[in-house]
Design brief:
With 532 residues, this protein is of the alpha+beta class. Helix content is 50%, strand content 11%. The protein has helices at residues 15-18, 30-66, 77-97, 103-125, 142-153, 158-169, 171-182, 192-196, 198-224, 271-289, 322-329, 334-353, 398-401, 425-440, 450-459, 465-469, 475-484, 496-504, 513-523; strands spanning 5-6, 226-227, 230-238, 242-249, 255-261, 299-304, 310-315, 318-321, 356-357, 366-371, 374-380, 387-388. The two termini are 21 Å apart.
Length: 532
C-alpha cells in the first residue's frame, strides 16, 4: 500500500454490474432484508392478536346490541375466516422467527399473507345481509390501510407491490359479488362493486410510491457501502468503535473484512478535533500497514469516506477469536496455550521493534484458525490503533485523541493508568492476562466495574493459575505467566522476543498441527468466518 486513500464517488457501474440474479436493480443488503423479515414476523403476530380481539369484541357488541343469547360454542362462517387468518398469522410468525430462514422467502410469504388478509376482510365485511335501502358509497377500507402499512414497513420492489396491491384491493369488490350471489346484497349493476372501492385502487398507487421510496433507501445503503474497490456485504459484528462488515473486492473477488469507525468517535461534532483525528488515523494506519509478520492481520487498504467514517480493509479470516474459543470450549491445554502465545509474540516483537505498541492485547483481538494448510494459525487484530513509543509531550494516539480510554481494563498494565511513557512491556502484561485466561477460563481479577478492575491490577497480586483452575499446569509456564503479570515493567520479560524464547524453553511436548487439525475437524469450525 503506497498511501492512504480518500474515497470519492464510487466508480461508475455498468448496467450489468447493477443487475442481480433476481433480475432487479441493485439489491438491498442481506442484513437489512433480515431485519425486514423480522418485521414481517412481528407484523403477522400483531395481526393475529388483532384478528382474535376483533372477532371477540364484534360478538360481544353484536350480542349486546341485538339482545341475542350468547352461544360462544357455535362458529359462524366469518369466525372460521378469522380463525384461518389467526392460524396463518401464527404460522408466519413462527416461520419468520426460525433460524437460518431465507429472508427473501419470508418477504414473499408476507406478500401472500397480505392477499389472504385482504380476502378475509373482503368476505367478512360483506358476508352479513345488507339493508336494501343502503346506498353504494365510495370509501377507503381496511384493505387499503393494510396495504399502506405493509408498503411502509417492508421493502418490496415496485412490480410485486403493484400486483399484490391490485389483487388485494380487488377483494372488496369480490366480497360484494359473493354477497350478491348469496342474495344478501342487491347493490345494482356489477360495476358498482368497483365504483364503491375506487379509493382503495387509488391507494395502490400510493402504496407503490411508498414501496419505491423504502426500497430505494435500502438500495442507497448498498451504494453507500461501496467503498472504493470494495463492496460491503453482511454485518459481522459491532463494537465500541464501530461495525465490521464482510466485503468483496470488485475486480479480484477477494473476500475481506471492513472495520468502520463511526464519525462521532472522531470528536463528537468538533470539526477541528475530527480533522486532527483523521490526520492521526492516516499516520498510525500507515505505520500499521508496514507490519509484515504473518501473525499480524494483513491490512489491505484504509481511508476516510466522504462522511468522515474511517475504515480498515483487512483479510477475511477463518476460525474464531480466543475469547469465543474459551467461552465455548473452556480452558485450553498448556501445550496449545504455548503454541498460541509464541505466535502472538512474533507479531508483537515486529511491532515493538518498529516502535509501535498495541495497547489493547486481549483474547478478542487474537484470532486463531486455519490459514492454507496450517491449523491453529494466530493472527493479531486491531493494529490500526497502535501508538508510537514516545516520551512526555508527544501527541496522543487516535484512541486517546477522541477521548477513549486505551486498552481494556481486564487486560491493562498498571502503568497505563498513570504513566505518560508506555512501552512494549505493557503488551507483555496484557499477554500475561491473556495466557491466564486461556489456562483457567477466568480473568486475572474479577470486579464489578472498570475502576475496581484497574485498581486490582494496580495493587493486588494474582492468584496462581493452578489455584484458580483446579487443574495441573506446568510450573514453568505458571511462573512465566505470573512474571508477565509483575506490577513493575522491569520485572517482566523485557521484550516479546524474550518471552517467545522463554516459552520455547519450557519442557513440554509441542502442540502439533495434526492435533490442531483434529480439534478443528471435531468441532466443525473450519468454515466459521471470523468476527474481527
Amino acid at each position: 500500500m503506497s498511501h492512504p486513500l480518500l474515497i470519492g464517488p464510487p466508480p461508475r457501474s455498468t448496467p450489468a454490474d447493477l443487475r442481480t440474479s433476481h433480475g432487479y436493480a441493485r439489491e438491498i443488503p442481506d442484513d437489512l432484508l433480515r431485519e425486514a423479515s423480522v418485521r414481517v414476523g412481528i407484523m403477522s403476530l400483531v395481526a393475529g392478536v388483532l384478528w382474535t380481539l376483533g372477532t371477540v369484541l364484534w360478538h360481544v357488541i353484536d350480542r349486546a346490541m341485538t339482545q341475542r343469547e350468547s352461544n360462544w360454542a357455535s362458529f359462524e362462517p366469518t369466525d372460521w375466516m378469522a380463525a384461518t387468518c389467526v392460524a396463518a398469522s401464527l404460522a408466519l410468525f413462527v416461520y419468520a422467527r426460525a433460524p437460518n430462514r431465507n429472508p427473501r422467502v419470508i418477504l414473499n410469504l408476507g406478500l401472500g399473507y397480505v392477499v389472504l388478509t385482504a380476502l378475509s376482510i373482503g368476505l367478512i365485511v360483506h358476508w352479513d345481509p345488507v339493508p336494501h335501502t343502503m346506498q353504494v358509497q365510495s370509501t377507503i377500507s381496511w384493505i387499503g390501510a393494510v396495504l399502506l402499512m405493509y408498503a411502509a414497513i417492508v421493502p418490496t420492489n415496485t412490480p410485486k407491490m403493484l400486483i399484490v396491491g391490485l389483487i388485494s384491493v380487488s377483494m372488496n369488490p369480490l366480497g360484494m359479488l359473493v354477497a350478491h350471489a348469496r342474495g344478501t346484497w342487491d347493490f345494482g349493476p356489477w360495476y358498482f362493486a368497483l365504483l364503491m372501492h375506487y379509493p382503495d385502487f387509488l391507494l395502490v398507487g400510493v402504496a407503490v410510491v411508498i414501496s419505491h421510496v423504502v426500497t430505494r433507501l435500502g438500495q442507497q445503503v448498498t451504494k453507500a457501502r461501496e467503498m472504493g474497490a470494495y463492496q460491503l456485504g453482511d454485518l459481522l459484528g459491532r463494537g465500541g468503535m464501530g461495525e465490521v462488515y464482510r466485503a468483496t473486492h470488485r475486480m479480484l473477488a477477494r473476500p475481506a473484512a471492513i472495520k468502520l469507525i463511526r464519525p462521532e468517535m472522531l470528536g463528537a461534532g468538533n470539526s477541528e478535533a475530527a480533522q486532527m483525528a483523521v490526520k492521526r488515523f492516516h499516520r498510525e494506519a500507515t505505520a500499521a500497514a508496514l507490519l509484515r509478520s504473518p501473525h499480524t492481520v494483513e491490512l489491505y487498504d484504509f481511508g476516510v469516506t466522504q462522511d468522515q467514517t474511517l475504515y480498515f480493509v483487512m483479510e477475511m479470516l477463518e476460525g474464531m477469536d480466543l475469547e469465543s474459543l474459551v467461552r465455548k470450549h473452556g480452558p485450553l491445554p498448556a501445550a496449545r496455550v504455548i503454541h498460541i502465545l509464541r505466535q502472538v509474540c512474533e507479531s508483537l516483537e515486529e511491532a515493538h521493534v518498529a516502535g509501535l505498541i498495541h495497547r489493547d492485547v486481549k483474547p478478542a483481538n487474537i484470532h486463531v484458525g486455519r490459514l492454507g494448510l496450517q491449523n491453529d494459525f494466530v493472527k493479531v487484530l486491531d493494529f490500526g490503533l497502535v501508538k508510537s513509543v514516545a516520551g512526555p509531550g508527544s501527541e496522543h494516539s487516535l484512541g486517546t485523541s477522541v477521548g477513549l480510554t486505551p486498552g481494556t481494563p481486564a487486560y491493562m498494565a498498571p502503568e497505563m493508568g498513570f504513566s505518560e511513557t508506555v512501552d512494549g512491556r505493557a503488551d507483555i502484561y496484557a499477554l500475561g492476562c491473556v495466557a491466564y485466561y486461556l489456562l483457567t477460563g477466568k480473568l486475572v481479577f474479577e470486579a464489578e466495574n472498570a475502576f475496581q478492575m484497574f485498581a486490582k491490577h494496580l495493587r493486588d497480586e494474582p492468584v496462581p493459575p493452578f489455584e484458580r483452575a483446579g487443574i495441573r499446569i506446568p510450573t514453568a509456564l505458571e511462573q512465566l505467566v505470573l512474571r508477565c503479570l509483575a506490577k513493575k515493567p522491569e520485572d517482566r520479560p523485557q521484550s516479546a522476543g524474550e518471552l517467545q524464547r522463554l516459552l520455547e524453553a519450557i519442557d513440554l511436548d509441542a502442540w502439533s498441527d495434526s492435533q490442531a487439525a483434529d480439534w478443528w475437524k471435531e468441532n466443525r469450525l473450519l468454515a466459521t468466518a471470523a468476527e474481527q
